[in-house]
Amino acid sequence: MNERSAYVSRLSDLRDELSRRNLSGFMIPHADEYQNEYTPDSAERLRWVTGFSGSAGVAVAWHDSAAIFVDGRYVLQVKTEVHPSCFVPYHTADLPVTDWLSSVLQPGSRLGYDPWLHTSDDVERLRVICEQAKAELVATTPNPIDVIWTDRPAVPLTPMIPHPLVYAGKDSQEKREELGRKLKEDRVGAAVITAPDSLAWLLNIRGEDLAYTPLSLCMGIVFQDGSVRLFIPRQKLTPQTLEHFGPSVFPCPPDTFEDELKKLGQQNMCVLCDPKKTPSWIVDCLRQQHVMIRHGDDPCVLPKACKNHVEAQGARNAHVRDGAALCRFLAWLDRESAGGKVTELDAASYLDACRQKNDLWKDMSFPTISGAGKNGAIIHYRSTPESNARLAPGTLYLVDSGAQYLDGTTDVTRTVAIGTPTAEHRDRYTRVLKGHITLATVRFPKGTTGSQLDVLARRSLWEVGLDYDHGTGHGVGSYLGVHEGPQRISKAGGSVALHPGMIVSNEPGYYKAGAYGIRLESLVLVTPCANMTGAERELYAFETLTLAPFDRRLIELSLLSKEDVTWINAYHARVCDVVCPLVDDETAGWLRDATQPL
C-alpha cells in the first residue's frame, strides 16, 4: 500500500467507525489531554490520520468531506504532507474551522469530539456553532481513532526526575506555599493543574516522556495548604523522586482522578480551572458534582514565566555555551558550503553534534529547521531524505535551532548567504535586521504588552509592502518548553504585560514562496531599565541573551541608521569577546572576521 492509499484507507475506516456511532463528523485536533505542543507518539492522531506533522492544527472528518486547518507557519508544509483528495487544507486566517463547520452542519447533524483533547473553552465555541445550526455536539469516548489505530504506540512511562535547586533557584515547598496563600486570598479551595510544565515548575521536577521538552506527563490538584495530589503512574516514581517530594505531595494512581474530583464536590469546595488548558472532561465531571468552578488562569503560569535570578543567570550561561556551538557550526558552514556539496541534513546533523558536546546539554529544544533556498520559505520546514536540498551557491540558508540545557533553554535563528547574495537578498535581510534591532533596543513602560511592541519589528518591511505571517516573539521556559506563555509578541495575541524575568524571542522574518526565507531570532530577557534620568514612569528593556553573529555579507549599509550600525558593532564585539575563548583557533579566527565593525 502506498502512502496516499494508507491515508485514504484510514479516513475510510474512521468514517465507518463514526457511522457505527451515528456521528456525522469528528474533530481531530493536534492535542493530547495535557494540551502539550509536542505530544507523545501515542497522541499523534492528527498525523496518523492526515499525514500532517506540524505542531498545531485541526482536522474535521465529515461523512462526505474532510478538511484540515493550519496557521501561517504551516500553509506550505500542509500542502506537501496532506493529500487534498483526503483532507482539503485551509489557512485559518482565510477560513477558520468554525466557519467551515457552519457550512456543513445541518439540523440533526451530530458532531463528535474527544472531551479529553478539547479544553472547556474549545467546547463552548463548538457548542455555540452547533446550537446555531440546530445540530448536536457529542462527547465521544473512547476516541474513535484509537479504535481503528491498531498499532498505536504505548503511552510513555519514563522516570520523573528531581530538578536541582542550583538550577531551579527556588524550593518547591516555598513555591507551593505561595500558591496556596494566593488560593486562600482568592477564596479558592483548590486548583486543578493539567499542564505538565506547570507541575514541573511547581514541584521542581522534569521528565523524559516527550521529545524536546523535559516533561513527565501528569496532572495534579493543589490545595490552600500547599499540598498536592499528583496523578501519575507509580512506575515513574523513583525513591529519589519520592524523597524529593517530601510529606505534602501525595502521588495517586491516575485511575483515582475521577474519585478525587468527586470529593471536591462532596467538600463543597470552590475549584479553580483554567478554561484555556483544562480538558472539558474534567470540567464536565466537576459540574456533575455541583462543584463551584472558578474560571481563571493556571496559577503557575505567570510566576513560571518570570524567571528568578538563578534561572535568569542560568539562561545567560546556557546561551554562552550555545553561542560557542553555533559559532563552531557557522565557521564550518562557511568553509564547507563553498563547493555546493553540503545538504540540509548534513548541516543540521553537524549543528546538533556541536551542541551535544556542551556541558549540561540534555536534548534539542525542537527539531532543527534547516532550510536551503525555497525550503527556507516554509516557516516550520523539516528536511527529510526526500526533500533534502543542497546549499547551492547564490542562495540563502535559514537555520532555526535550539537546545535544552539543565540551566536553560535556547532558540536561535540565523540566515546566511551561500556564495554571493543578490541585491534583493540584501534588501530583505537588512529590513528584517532593522526590525530585530528596533525591538532589541526598545524601552517600554511597565504594563506594556507584546501586542503593543509587535509593530516595531515590522515597520521596515511594511514601508515597502512586505510582512511575515507569524508572531514576532514567544515566551521561553527555563529547561522547559521552548514555547511558553503567557507572554508573546504578536499582532493577534500578546495581551499579557511583559514583566522582568520573562524570556521572549525576537524573531522577525520575510518569506518569498518558492524562493527563500529570512528569519533572525535571538532570545531576550525583560529587565528593569536602570539610570533613566528624568523618566516619569518605570521602564523596562530587553537584554539580548543569544550570542551569534549576523551575516555581514547580507547587510545593506545604506538602509541602516547610525544607531543601527552602532548596535550591530557593539553586539558583534560582545559575541567575539565572549565566544572566542571557548572555541578552537580556526573558529575564533573566523569569528573575528565575521564580527569586524561595519
- The CATH homologous superfamily name of the largest domain equals Creatinase/methionine aminopeptidase superfamily
CATH topology (fold) name of the largest domain: Creatine Amidinohydrolase
| C-alpha Rg (nearest Å) | 25 Å
User: What share of the residues does DSSP label as strand, in percent?
Assistant: 15-25%
Q: State the domain count.
A: 3
Mean pLDDT: 95
Helix content: 25-40%
- Record field, number of beta strands: 28
Main sheet summary: 6 strands, mixed
Please tell me what the overall shape is.
globular
C-alpha termini separation: 58 Å
The CATH class assignment of the largest domain is: Alpha Beta
Low-pLDDT residue spans: none
CATH architecture of the largest domain: Alpha-Beta Complex
Quaternary class: single chain
Walk me through this protein's architecture.
With about 600 residues, the chain is α+β, with helices and mostly antiparallel strands. The protein has three domains: about 5-150, Creatinase/prolidase N-terminal domain (Creatine Amidinohydrolase, Chain A, domain 1, 3-Layer(aba) Sandwich); about 160-305, 3-Layer(aba) Sandwich (Creatine Amidinohydrolase, Chain A, domain 1), CATH 3.40.350; about 305-470 and about 495-595, Creatinase/methionine aminopeptidase superfamily (Creatine Amidinohydrolase, Alpha-Beta Complex). About 35% of the residues lie in helices and about 20% in strands. The chain contains 19 helices and 28 strands. A six-stranded mixed β-sheet has the order 4-3-2-1-5-6, sandwiched between helices. Strands 12-11-10-8-13-14 form a six-stranded mixed β-sheet, with helices on both faces. The chain starts with a helix and ends with a helix. The mean pLDDT is about 95.
